[in-house]
Structure formats: C-alpha cells, structure tokens
C-alpha cells in the first residue's frame, strides 16, 4: 500500500497513575493573584507559582466590616505578580484607595482589655472619612514553591516571606485592614492537597511582626485560613474560604470572615471573579449605641495575565520493529508537558489498524502486504502539538509448505 491511508484517528486523554494529578493540571494554567498579590484564592495564597516570564495584573474591589459597630470599609487593591523561576514568584500589592464608612454618633472604637471579656467603647477623635480617606497598605514578597502535586507529591508546600508598609496618612489605625499600621515583616506557610478529582484544599498559616508599636496597637499578628476550590465544568471554579487573624496581646477584635465566590476561566488573557463575604466575629453594634450596618460584604476581581504555554514532548517506542503479516505489536508512549496541561493524542497509521490499550497503542498488521508502515502519534495540549513516528516492517508470513 504505497499511498498514505488514515485507518485510525483516535482521540483520548492520557491518564496518569493518579486521576487527581490529571485534574489539577489545567488548574495551574488558571492561577490568579489574591488581593495581596500572591497567586491564590481571594484572600489565601496557594503553593503553586507562576512560571518563568508569566505575570498577572490584578484589579480588586472589596467591601467588608471591621471592629466595633461593624464599620464598613471599602478598598481597591492593585496587585502585580511575576514568575521569576518556575518555582519562584515575586508579588506586589497596594491598596490604592480605601474608604471608611461613618456612624451618625461618630466613629467608635472598641478595646478588649486583656483578661477581661467586657468591652470598653470609646469615642474616637477621627473625623468622618466616608468620602474617601486615604491609600492603604503596600505588600511585597516572594513565594518559593518547595513541593507541587503536579510533580507527583501528595501535598503542595511553599514558603512566603513578605513585608508590609503602611502608606496611609489619615486612615484611622483601629479601622485598618486586619493589620496594625507601620512597617512589618512576616512569613507564611502554604499547604495544599488535591482531594481526588473534585477539589483542592488550601491551608495558610503565618505571622507578621511590626516591631515597637504604640501601646494600644499589637506588635505582631497571626494569620490563618482554610480554602476549598473545585471546578464547575471547564469554565468556572467555585471558591470557599475561611480567613482569620489573631492579634498579639488580644487588644483588637480578631476578624474571622467567610468568603464564597466564583471564578470564570473562559478567557486566556483575562479572568473575572466575584464573591460574597460575611464577618463572623464582631461586637453587637447595639452595645455601642450605633446603627447596625450589617456584616455582609463582597469582592470583585479582574486579572490581566500573560500565560506561557510550552509545547508537550512525546516519545514512541515500538515493542517490535518487525512483525509477520497478521501479527500485532504494542507501541509505548511517553508524554510530558512542561506546563502540566491535560493532553490528548491522535494516532495515524499508513496501514493496518491501531487500537488503544491504556496509555499505549496496538498496531495490528492483519491483511497488510509486505512493506514498511508508518505509525504517528500527535500530542496536543489544545494549543501546541508534538509528534513522534515509528516505522514497522511487515514481512510475509511463511506458509507451512515453505
């Protein structure tokens, strides 16, 4: 058969030993920054990092409630994340604008006295800042990915050193985002685990040390959080987070918030996210004599990103390079993708029949004339394609008389 005839064009997804690892492959291509800049969920960071040369620019909007009377705060962080190495990224986030809602009776603060469960409400001298107070905190840091499920590890693990600098000139310290004002140094430990093929569990724990602060402001804080995200089809991901902070000395109310949201994954160069938040820990505003503005909030996110998609690599190894007419041989395939994408493969033969056997193929020479036949495998990550080819010689089967 001199002419090339396509007898088999068979598509299938290459299944690795752990289907959970396969489920997480596309997830890595859809990473976005948290509002503090590091790659993650809404508030929490995940161990995975952007690859070398990839970047994301995030525009965020969030409204939440803090401290006594559940004072509403609205802020607009802008973040930038850059992949310095495949296992190392740098990030920067700045609260470009920050508003504090006012109360009719003036801004109230609450100080929890150490060893005393009672609250001491006191009037603050801060003016009404509801029309737009100031800029907020500047965050910068690095994330080092030590272990990744995409490389066969059961858990993801990363370390994240960070620094925070307050850029506010007029925003009341007591109503700032869950951190005391002034410069601070900290370290986060980030852990993740893929739960079967359904969801990814993320755990964060870290501290921030701010040095010598005024007496009413703690010099250090502990941040913690638990997150869960799982795909809803191919174009959306549901995100749930529980994030909290504990302040050194317990002189400030410790925020604990629930976040529920959706992330749309259908665009290559930008992504959209939106979510609802609820402050689970706060003083009853009635105790302080101020109206209750509620504990509900929301967040929205637009991310402009550059993703680098490198082509996959495939190698083919035939079991036998010479067969008798009517015999078959297995063709083993080794396929890898530097970006950990889900891969599909197409088999094409110039003669004979090709059928699938797990992650390999079976070439059947039944009915073929003597000659050399070409079998090719085309590997695709939906954007790039790589090919491997083997040649198998088919010899005439000798009859019993010969």
Task: Write up this protein.
This protein is mainly beta and 402 residues long. Helices cover 3% and strands 53% of the residues. It contains 3 helices and 25 strands. It has helices spanning 19-23, 25-28, 285-288; strands at 10-13, 32-33, 39-40, 55-66, 71-85, 88-100, 108-112, 119-123, 137-147, 156-166, 184-195, 199-209, 220-231, 236-247, 256-264, 270-279, 296-306, 313-318, 322-324, 328-336, 344-349, 353-357, 360-364, 371-380, 385-395. The protein has a 12-stranded antiparallel barrel. The longest helix is centred in the first third of the chain and has 5 residues, at 19-23.
Concise summary:
The protein is mostly beta strands. It has helices at residues 19-23, 25-28, 285-288; strands at residues 10-13, 32-33, 39-40, 55-66, 71-85, 88-100, 108-112, 119-123, 137-147, 156-166, 184-195, 199-209, 220-231, 236-247, 256-264, 270-279, 296-306, 313-318, 322-324, 328-336, 344-349, 353-357, 360-364, 371-380, 385-395.
